[in-house]
Amino acid sequence: MKPQTLGWTLLMVVGGAFLIGRAVLTGAGTVYVQDVEIEVEIEDEAEEEAQVVTLQRVEQVPPNARSEPGVRLSYVHTFGLWVAAACTLGIFSFLWGDNPLYKVTEAIFVGSSAAYAMVVAFWSELVQNLCGNLLPDLMRETLIPGLKVEEPNLWYLVPLVMAIMLLWRLMPSGGWISRWPLAFFIGATAGFRMMGYLEADFTQQISNTIMPLIVTGADGSFQFWASLKNMTIVGSVLVCLTYFFFSVEHTGPVGWAARLGIWVLMITFGASFGYTVMGRIALLAGRLEFLFDDWLWLIDPLGRRLDM
Amino acid sequence: MKRTVPLIIAGTVGFVLIVSYFIPYTESWGEDAMTWFNILAAIAFVLGAGNLVKMHLKKISDQQAGWGYSAITLAAFFFTLIVGMLKIGVTPSEKYPTNAWAGPYDQAGSAFRWVYDYLFLPLSATMFAMLAFYIASAAFRAFRAKNVEAIALLTTAFIVLLGRTYAGVWLTDWIPEESIGLEADALRLDNVTGTIMNTFNLAGMRAITIGIALGVASTSLKVLLGVDRSYLGSTDD
Fold this sequence. Notes:
heterodimer, A: about 300 residues, mainly alpha, 3-stranded antiparallel sheet, 8 helices, about 10% strand, B: about 240 residues, 3 domains, 7 helices
């Protein structure tokens, strides 16, 4: 075994032993829950008295409530917490280099996210909208009791047929059949996006830029900073648009304006970059908080383990 | 048949959606078209999942390099799919307590919610969190203060990064609120960041957004009028 590999292996073994020891001694990495019973009354027309049905729910509780009556250790959630921690560490391990642990977590991520998207699409679109409109009575009795659609809407046979045509793409021949629903897709996106962008972005942004260059207060006094801000915004938008306007050669006054536009755009890109990095760092902080707070119990920012 | 009909479908659907913005009578057509669009988008997920399964099954059957990871992908896929489709662990909703299937598929305590909380959420959040390292590393390698534009970009990024942290506030906290009759606290890093975001960034993003909107409108018109037919693919099949 190479000295480097041996070193890492020893580090992992010591780290693992520390985690297990800490989990045994302090209870770190455990999740506690309590069972909640909800009683619901059902009005039955045939019977005079309302029938009462009891529903069971499981609620997570903070660790410092673990000695309270009714609170128990949840093996399912505790296992989940350790799986989540292993997955988080598995993805982070890529910082060290490509390795089997990262590949395993990546494979889990690909499989579970594909199925997650499919399940969400199935329940929220296919069952709710397609089956709900084609078979309203059956859906009301089985999957969607509160469905408001009364009569079957046969127009929904069109998306059903197009759905079958789209799935034809998986067949070895006749792939061109899927072009019809694809064309519907492209046409709908083009029409919807065109109007959406023209309305919400184009006209709205121009409308927001038409602002007073001389700002006065309620008492009629001149507001220097507000006026300067408005002038800067209007001027900056105009010079940026001048830079984007390629029908005129960028020389003379147009060239100077375009040059100013580049500077404004550079400031915009710099600000966007800083903002994006901060967003990612916030996510990173969230993951570290999960590892050190929820899993290892090394920090307690929310005071969930006070008096333990 | 193979190319003309799709062009007619794309044009008709697109223009119906555009017309539905202007004529109140056709508003419901637009709504229906969007519902159909969402149904087809849902089917596209099924198509994508089908492709995923097909590809990984082939990799396993051919015993290609890394086929074990394909097996893990498929195991994670089918586990999530089964617990989600069968609503395992979902109890009836309070509104319809007698209907076993009426509970939401992502109900707290259900198996699908377990997958979301302990697999999907940590994995996706960590994947995106990793970008913090890569953005920083790429910036370190690519950004060089060679000219005025690059200096403007770097300085702005530095101010925004610092101004959004406690360190930025702490560093310039000594600047008084008012000095020689001016609001000197505007020079504090957090306030400078606010000014950059609300003035220069706002103006720049506004110009970019106007440009994008014009680009989307022209591209959409090209697709709807049949000028751009690239989405139909090759003429071979």
